[in-house]
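Dear U.,

For the methods section draft, I wanted the exact inputs and outputs in one place so we can describe them consistently. I've listed the two proteins in the order they'll appear in the manuscript figures. Please don't edit the token lines directly; just add comments below if something needs changing.

First protein:
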Amino acid sequence: MVDTLQHNEWSGKTDGLPWMQRSLIAMFRVLPLWLLYGVMAFVVPFYMIFNRKGYRAMYCFFHERMGYGKWKSFWSVYANHFRFGQIILDRFGVYAGKKYRFEIDGQSLVDALEARPEGFVILSSHVGNYEMAGYSMKPKIKKFNALVFSGETETVMENRQRVLSQNNIQIVPVKEDLSHLFTLNAALDNGEIVSLPADRIFGSQKNVECQFLGATARFPMGAFALAVQKNVSVLAVFVMKGRMRKYHAYVQEVGCNREGSKREQIAQMAQDFANRLETIIRCYPTQWFNYFDFWEQ
């Protein structure tokens, strides 16, 4: 369960050259996590200065969507960048062998669907640290297929593959020839689990409009269309950062009226997901990591 697709204003790629990332993994093997968090606290202001687009997008999110005042919005942008830095560090911590503790709400939903012969879909989003789910919520029966952005550095991709493959999770990179779609369709036909991002438009992908945080926003249609076409169950998983090595995962059912037309089912399912995502964001506002104008029409 990993970080996923890109947006034309936000690359989705982890910062740093491969040798820097390898050095970070090495440091995790000898340095305590709190020390690296402390260094990140001093790095964040510089990142905010040089990443003006991301800063403006997050400031507008807190000021316009969350209704914060100017000073609270400013400090929330700092807290958001710091949280994002912690989450990136946690990922590299896992690559180095660090262990994290998880509290999971809704594990029984996954267990029940795994016990059935049919495959099912899990929807991810760019809140919290979804990738960490793959290191703790291991599929017990079914093979897990996670669609991922293919433009990450070699260091990240190799370590993801190494750790996730131990948990019966297959990474499915996005391909220009769209061959990844055949892989996902085949996985569902084989009764496996498919993980897809459901909150970020990219390229010419079709979209569906939803009411989200007080305004109309576009969500990618692909994940919902696949679930409706295959007539499979759908779960949303949100993995939110807590203190130090603690995470809280929320597993929730995403549904629609299966008696309606396919277009109606897609629209209802997308809105249900948007509603659940909004609830999580209101509980964890500084863990929203879409650094562009999400509501841009």
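Second protein (the one for the lower panel):
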Amino acid sequence: MRKLFTILLMTLVSNAFADNRLKDIVSIKGVRDNPLIGYGLVIGLNGTGDGGGEVTNSSLKKMFQTLGLDKPQEVSSKNVAAVIVTAKLPPFGRIGQKLDVTISSIGDANSLAGGTLLVTPLKGGDGKVYAVANGALSIGGLKQGAKFATTGAIPSGATIEQEIALSFDKKKSIRLSLNRPDFTTAARVVKTINENLGGLFASATDSATIDLIIPTNYQRKVVNLIAVIENYRVNQDSKAKIVINEKTGTIVAGGDVTLNKVAISHGDLSIQVGEEGGKDGKKGSLFMVEQKTTLKELVNALNAIGTNPDDLISIFQTLKSNGALIADIEFI
């Protein structure tokens, strides 16, 4: 576990100022997935279905009426299961394109293996039908004893029936949103775009939003413009932060996490971070590290003397409370 901490910290610190493509750190307003949801029935189960639930029986009656049976009798079958079907409508999805769908049981079915999803309309948040799904389910890992046989998938199991209007051809401006809002990064993005386009076309309205006016030579060529700017490289700044997962004992640190002058005593361990002692050294149980020490260097020193993960977490929490650790700590 101690080696894991060292590798995570060293990797993040060495890449703190790496260039990132603009397409990897921003999203374009309006260009996003849209969740779709529908209610349907899975048939053809081998006695592993719901077995007569009220919702399932009601749905079967309505289905039979749709098929021309005016007065269907009560139907109770373990070969049928009520399910929720979900999918994602991609940006610029066009009529006829296929979508992958996920099917999840909502009744007391034991397994959906071997079942077939009946035709199921998939609706968006506005209540309109955007796709229709059906087909044979795939339940992965059955031979390995899958524990979640009540959830399955149908690759390319839905067909888009309605598009979401989204056109870039006539746009006069576009809005970029940083995935991780940061004033420094926003300013760098603006500077990079303007320098490369040769004008004051981009401006930041806050730490997350950059508005870009379409240059004259890119009018009605907005797709070409986006293809160009999304490959610009920007140094994404990051706040000094430590993320601790106490359940797994994992610690991840990013940004310039540094330490002020401080003395640490934890159990039989004593550490002093100060101006003296140019190199890490040992005097009995006292370990000396420089004041400019980063968290990576401190962790390396602690690992070298056998500190366990619980000790590391306790030390970081205490350093933060003392004000010696210059970073935010987040527990997940």
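Candidate sentences for the figure legend, describing the second protein: The chain is about 25% helix and 35% strand. The helical segments are 2-14, 22-25, 54-66, 183-197, 222-229, 295-304, 309-322.

Thanks,
Y.
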